[in-house]
Give the backbone structure.
Amino acid sequence: MILGVVGSGREPSNSGRLVEEVIAGAREAGAGETRTVSLARLSFRGCVGCGACRATATRCVLEDDLTPVLHETRTCRGLVLATPIYYGYATGLFKSYLDRWYSFRDAGRALRVPTGRPAVLLVTQGHPDPDAYAWTLGSLERVLTSYGFDPTALVAPGLEEAGAVDRHPDLLARARDLGRALGA
């Protein structure tokens, strides 16, 4: 399964629209099962730092709407992640989702998830300069790499208002191409 996770608090969102294009491209390439989740529609907590996932359990012990999404993140064959930049970083929703990945390692910090899986990272931002938040992109790519994913990123600058991405067919085409590569 290819899993798409949208980290925008706004619906509909430019981030979500790009995920739609990646997933459509993956389906065109024969990806099979896909699923997209909007974090804004879920009720969940961030990591509480209890450490139970590493000490006595094999997964996060918090039970909420994020529980099945974390399971799917652990088991998917490909991942599509999208977040807008809010105040220089990923949204709080998206960061809370990533924080719960702590459970993907055991007490000795060994990965409990498959490695070498492809991931598409979509970052939307209002700032017109695609390099304005390069350090944020690098940080998110390092998280993905450290958890065994092989990330490919697409930065979508200048998308301040909802629906702006639809005026950028080049970005939509690039997202669909990333999906075709992911689904192949």
Remarks:
- DSSP finds six helices and six strands in the chain.
